[in-house]
Specification:
FAD/NAD(P)-binding domain, four-stranded parallel beta sheet, 3 domains, five-stranded parallel beta sheet, alpha/beta
């Protein structure tokens, strides 16, 4: 099994900062009381870990809609195939009870063989299938619950309990769940929504109906024909690789991966459709532990924040420009005359891949990043962007609306492209499908439209052509959503500002005042203003913020 290192995570601000709290309750707070946690994935596991470290004896109930707690999306085996790869170095997956590597070392050899792993393959700089990470989370969650109960806490995990409403009354929060035996109602002093990712079962775009990629069996049911994939980043790459495994075989024994179709898949044609028609670049070598940046530092960003919101985005961007010039004096000049402006930098950053052509650019990039790994040489501008987005993130909650829109339109695509660097094995499989003549990538441009074509098909009008597909898979990844779109009607009726983003410490301000609290760590709501917070390291840090506030 070829294992390639990749990590794309971000860090939260200093935990001591409490600015932006939505919690404005009356009455004295007297500890966490009883706690309900909705969801049992990674966020819930890290929340339990930090609550356990607080020293108080706690009474906690965890609600899980499935019959197996601890996996979470997108790590659940039923939702993913074992060739969908996690985008985090194992050393960057925060410890719950043990580290991932230590856990892997305790697994029997026959179980490692099922993952096509040997003990020689185990490395803290390697990266592994999502479903393997899911098994780790599942095991660690169970060990954490058992350990907390042995230590005197009371932790109950209610499986097959799908929470359909939260009813706050000021002093308590009632949780209403549906079970195979009928509805149940439980009451808590505080509730944490740790529901993680959320994708629609029947996604749409314009007038077209799309296929959800989760669970992955949705995709394997599509007959081999003209299949569209909406998106071109990591989720879309997983989708394309899934289609390749479903309708053919990858030969990964040599230095070059190849692909051959199944006998009944001669008509397979997969087209990735995205705004720019490009994929992120591949993972590259850089030193770890990280070397510090010189200009775009946590301290420098804090100083700019202290100066106020006026022109804050421009001032932090100037730190980024200085850092790029320090790392590679020629880089920005290569991007064009406007590269030292926010819009010009974003345009120049993507220009070469757009002009080269999506998958031809992928092949060119693959050679560069493989050489980077072989020679152990860092690509300077990419290292600055990878490290810099973590410091840049601290300024985002302080931007005015005008600057937030500029950041979203121009800089967010750059940072997302950089931290979404593609594992080499995934790149090799994408190139194999391209070389086999079954994969293409097409830009839609700014004025595209989507419409229904026949019973299940989709028609796409790009700026240059009309494309018709037998089916199109939605691979756009997790989208943000306001608090008002939480699927709990009694709760949303009480939210004071349902269209405002949730901010630290993630307690929801409700019309009914009192001592009870509802915290929101549901990912769609969190990424509204924390756009880099989708990795396990991020969930660990956000969970610590909530646990700290609960234990006050």
């Amino acid at each position: 099994m070829l294992i390639c290192p990749v990590i794309r995570i971000s860090e939260c601000e200093d935990h001591g900062e409490r600015a932006g709290s939505l919690m404005k309750t009356k009455g004295k707070r007297s500890g966490p009381g009883t706690i309900g946690i909705v969801g049992s994935g990674a966020t819930a596991a890290y929340l339990l870990k930090h609550l356990a470290a607080g020293g108080e004896r706690l009474k906690i109930t965890v609600f899980e809609s499935s019959d197996e707690p601890g996996f979470g999306m997108p790590y659940r085996p039923s939702d993913n195939a074992d060739f969908m790869l996690c985008n985090a170095f194992s050393r960057e997956i925060p410890v719950i009870r043990t580290s991932l590597i230590d856990w892997l070392k305790t697994q029997p050899s026959h179980e490692l063989n099922e993952w096509e792993l040997s003990r020689h393959d185990l490395s803290a700089r390697a990266f592994y299938p999502r479903t393997l990470i899911g098994e780790f989370l599942h095991d660690q969650f169970a060990a954490l619950v058992d350990g907390m109960n042995r230590d005197g806490h009371s932790v109950s995990v209610l499986t097959n309990h799908r929470v359909e409403d939260l009813i706050p009354n000021g002093s308590h929060v009632k949780v209403r769940a549906v079970t195979p035996d009928g509805p149940v109602m439980r009451e808590f002093d505080n509730v944490v929504l740790a529901t993680g990712h959320s994708w629609p079962t029947h996604p749409t775009i314009d007038d077209a109906e799309l296929v959800s990629p989760w669970p992955y069996t949705n995709m394997t049911k599509i007959p081999p024909g003209k299949i569209g994939v909406l998106g071109a980043s990591l989720s879309a790459i997983d989708v394309v690789v899934t289609l390749g495994h479903t309708h053919g075989d990858f030969d990964e024994r040599g230095a070059t991966v190849s692909w051959k179709p199944n006998p009944d898949a001669k008509d397979l044609k997969v087209t990735m459709v995205s705004h720019m028609g490009i994929m992120p670049e591949g993972d590259f070598y850089y030193p770890f532990p990280y070397k510090p940046l010189r200009y775009l530092t946590k301290e420098a960003v804090k100083e700019e924040i202290a100066r106020g919101a006026e022109n804050l985005l421009e001032r932090v961007f100037e730190l980024l420009v200085r850092e790029l010039d320090e790392s590679n004096p020629e880089y920005l000049d290569q991007l064009g005359d406007r590269s030292r402006t926010i819009a010009g930098f974003a345009e120049g950053y993507f220009r070469h891949r757009q002009e080269k052509g999506g998958l031809d650019a992928v092949k060119e990039d693959f050679e560069v990043v493989r050489q980077s790994m072989q020679d152990r040489t860092t690509i300077p501008h990419r290292y600055v962007l990878l490290r810099g987005h973590e410091e840049f993130d601290a300024a985002l909650r302080h931007l005015n609306e005008h600057d937030w829109e500029i950041f979203t339109d121009h800089l967010m695509p750059v940072f997302a492209d950089c931290y979404a660097a593609v594992p080499h094995l995934s790149l090799a499989r994408i190139i194999a499908l391209y070389d086999a003549g079954v994969l293409d990538i097409v830009p839609t441009g700014s004025n595209s439209s989507f419409s229904k074509e026949g019973s299940d098909g989709v028609r796409v009008q790009t700026e240059d052509e009309v494309l018709a597909f037998d089916a199109m898979i939605d691979a756009r990844g997790q989208d943000s959503a306001p608090l008002g779109e939480l699927p709990f009607p009694s709760l949303t009726e009480q939210i004071v500002e349902p269209n405002e983003p949730v901010e630290r410490p993630f307690a929801i301000e409700m019309a009914i005042r009192g001592t009870s609290r509802v915290y929101c760590l549901a990912l769609p709501q969190v990424i509204e203003r924390h756009p880099f917070s989708q990795g396990l390291a991020n969930m660990n840090e956000l969970a610590e913020i909530v646990a700290t506030d609960l234990l006050v």
